[in-house]
Amino acid sequence: MKRSTYPLYFFLLGILISYFLKEGYSYYTYFYDLNSSDKTLCVVLFLVGGLSGITFKDKITQIRLPFYLFYFLSTFYVLEFCYYLLSFSSYAHFPIYFQLILSGIGLSMLFRMPPKHTFALLFGVLLVLFASFSKLEIFIFSAIGSVFILVASNKAKINWGFSALCLIPFLFPLTPVSYFSDQHLYHDKIISQFTTRFSQIDITEWKGDRWFYFNHRPYFSTIDYSMYYEPMAHLPLRLIENPEKILVIGGENGILIHQILKHESVQSVTFLPYDSSLFRIASTESEFLTINHSIFDNEKIKVISNSIFDYLAFENTSFDLIYIDLPDPSSIETSQYFSKEFYQLLKNHLTPDGIFITQSMSPYLTPNSFQTIKNTIISAGFQIQPMHNQIPTIGEWSWVMGALDSIKFSDFQFEKAEQLNTKWLTPESTRLLLSFGKSPNSDYAINTIDSAILFKLNINETAFH
Torsions phi, psi of 325, nearest 5? Predict the structure, then answer.
């Protein structure tokens, strides 16, 4: 390597050292709590690298070409590599420690450089700082600075081969580390974030599985979503002989409809979304398409854009089954979908043997809300059958089925669970879904649109959960 090209290489070295320290600190503090012991460890590793560079300066000088090249490449890709590791490893930050040692070695060269080389390295450091404050692309400044250093050097003596090697990292586009404002709320890495009218959706990933959070509360995960949607979808369908027409209210993620359409007798699904933005996201974003199997492309699905109450009040269509998968009654608006008036509207859209099913929160964490939902459905003139399941992601959860006649399960219907392509549901688990302990004897209120008693109960019961 000719000495006339040293300023260029030290300039690039200065850029990379300061770039790594700045971005590495941002990465580390974003995903981890950087306490005093972590800071001390990082400083010690950096000093170890510097002292090693001074102690073994002659040996490092002999291998400076591969060292420069390796440092250039590793600096460009170390954070991307850590970001990749974070999806399945608890030690994803270890490559940063290794890079700190290399950075210390690189900076130790300050102690053996002539003034013009020191100036080139410091010029690179200052350029990174300027690029950070100006929020402009750092590599634009790198290119400008490189030209400046080249002009200041003896161009006739430049080692073009080594210079070309130094530019290799620039030829491969980086996948930027994605930073989200709410990462501090989760242990796992956020991979996507969406916002709708009603909620913020955060999706985290760990060892190939994903967790979906709505307004920072667990919604479902790829590990156990079948424990929620398979019971809700298949048990009501097995109670009706050859169900053909289905109405789904809510369930915008598409998983419920995917389960429903596993039944060949189903001819049409009328879909009435509550959150149209979530429906659009679930129809287009890969995070949802992989779990709903692009179900919204199915020709059997008819999407209705009317409001839920307008559709139920003014349409005359009857359905064999109605599914209600709406948010908890945590607001005045959502409480109305668990009201006596709402359930009375459902009556007008059920066939004589029809059944509807609604999610009804946790029977143990929110017992008063659960019992009030049951009581409200009964007050609307329905016979009910509650069921529940323990779902690791969201805890104990329940559903209530309603029908004009009593709901009876037979062994034949239990065994039908084996005939479906299900991930979790079996005849044995189906029986357990229907098993409750003794019901409390207390009288519970009836939720109406005017009283919104369920909203008040829900606020009290979920205040500490």
Answer: -120, 75
Reading phi first (left if > 0) and then psi (alpha if -120 to 50, else beta), residue 392 is in alpha
Angle between helices 340-347 and 367-379 (to 10 degrees): 40
How many residues appear in the chain?
465
pLDDT in tens, 358-410: 999 999 999 999 999 999 999 999 999 999 999 999 999 999 999 998 877 66
Cα angle: 308, vertex 311, 313; to 5 degrees: 105
Q: Which of 289, 288, 279 is nearest to 252 (CA)?
A: 279
Of 206, 192, 180, nearest in space to 89 by CA: 206
Cα–Cα distance measured from residue 391 to residue 368, given in angstroms and rounded to the nearest whole number: 20
In a domain, 252, yes or no: yes
Q: Tell whether pTM > 0.90.
A: no
Residue with tokens 């062994």, as numbered in its chain:
411
> CA–CA separation, 31 vs 45, rounded Å?
20
In this structure, is residue 116 part of a structural domain?
yes
Are 142 and 250 contained in the same domain?
A: no
Residue 40: domain span: 3-171
DSSP track, 326-368? ---S-SHHHHGGGSHHHHHHHHTTEEEEEEEEEE---TTTSHH
- Per the domain annotation, does 203 fall within a domain? no
